[in-house]
Design a protein that fits this description.
GO terms for molecular function: acyltransferase activity, transferring groups other than amino-acyl groups. InterPro entries: Acyl_transf_3_dom. Pfam families: Acyl_transf_3. The chain is mainly alpha-helical. Helices cover about 75% and strands about 0% of the residues. The chain starts with a helix and ends in a 7-residue tail after the last helix. Residues about 135-140 have low confidence and may be disordered.
Length: about 325
């Protein structure tokens, strides 16, 4: 589905835009609205796309090559936070603090990968079933009526999601490793995949969702991803974006948007480097255009191009094999 890549493009671009400190501070209401839906939407899509139909070895390899770049970049970000006067500045960096940020309380945008790994492991454990048990249950189901077979499948699915939700609850409330709201959006994405199947049916892209979204967003008290009102914002934003995509974006722009949507990992990993560097030319661009829109466009383009530039260098030098487990990431 190209629409999913388009959604990922929008969400990752907004993530970069509002990691620019000046933009977030100058437009706090816009930041509050964007923070209500951009990463919840990303987690929902991630839950929908997450593949649990893998062997233990294949799944372990997937987790390993998320953990390695996550650990390296989170470590680098934590060290830089101890050296630079940024908002998340660390006064006294120790090995204990570094370990805490890697395994328990990540800093910067890398919390998403931390959440993805924990939610993904919980999802896999809840849905993984031994092949023998699966084949045995299929033989038993063949003797039942179709309605009973459907009922049995629904019961199994309900049991799996109950176990999945229990894992997430324990990680959130029991261990404090997850935001329950973030975990819930990942779970909803998985629920859409396992029960509905078709993403377009769960989020109908219709023109009327635009009007509903505008009316719903008039009240800024709805700008909270951890509330039902915030979940409605996420639903309406996704449905509206699916409708926008259907309008017909010019092909060159469409290709660019889909390329970015298919390659969001480099932006997640490397864009903080360029949002930090943006502070050094911020005053120059603000003198030219005081609203900050020129600064926003230039900085987002700089972060995207720079992140892909780093990835390209890693691909051609062979570092991607060590960093991502692939000869070429893009």
């Amino acid at each position: 589905m190209e629409e999913l890549d388009f959604l990922k493009f929008v969400f990752i671009t907004l993530m970069i835009a509002f990691h620019l400190t000046y933009i977030g501070d100058t437009y706090p209401v816009a930041k509050q609205l964007v923070y209500t839906f951009h990463m919840p939407g990303f987690l929902l899509v991630s839950g929908y796309l997450f593949n649990v139909n893998k062997s233990w070895a294949a799944f372990g390899k997937t987790m390993l090559w998320i953990f390695i770049p996550y650990t390296l970049m989170e470590s680098g970000y934590t060290v830089m936070a101890s050296l630079l006067p940024i908002r998340e500045h660390i006064n006294h960096l120790t090995v204990g603090i570094l370990i805490d940020h890697i395994f328990l309380h990540p800093m910067g945008p890398y919390w998403y990968l931390h959440t993805l790994m924990l939610c993904g492991i919980s999802y896999y454990l809840a849905f993984k079933r031994p092949k023998r048990a699966f084949s045995s249950s299929i033989k038993q189901e063949k003797t039942l009526l179709p309605i009973k077979m459907m009922s049995s499948k629904n019961q199994v699915l309900l049991g799996k999601f109950t176990l999945f939700a229990l894992f997430l609850w324990l990680l959130s409330y029991g261990c404090g490793l997850l935001s329950i709201a973030n975990a819930a959006y990942f779970l909803i994405g998985a629920l859409v995949r396992q029960s509905v199947g078709n993403f377009r049916q769960a989020f109908p892209g219709r023109w009327w969702t635009v009007g509903l979204l505008v009316v719903w967003c008039i009240d800024s008290s709805h700008y909270d991803k951890a509330t039902f009102a915030g979940a409605c914002v996420v639903f309406l934003v996704i449905s509206t974006l699916l409708w926008v995509y259907q309008l017909g974006i010019p092909q060159p722009l469409r290709n660019l948007f889909l390329f970015i949507g298919r390659n969001t990992l480099p932006l997640l990993l490397f864009s903080p480097i360029f949002t930090i560097l943006a502070k050094y030319y911020q005053s120059l661009l603000l003198r030219m255009e005081p609203t900050g829109m020129l600064f926003l466009v230039v900085s987002v383009a700089f972060a995207i191009a720079g992140s892909y530039g780093i990835t390209w260098l890693m691909d051609v030098t062979g570092l991607s094999k060590l960093f991502f487990g692939k000869k070429g990431l893009i």
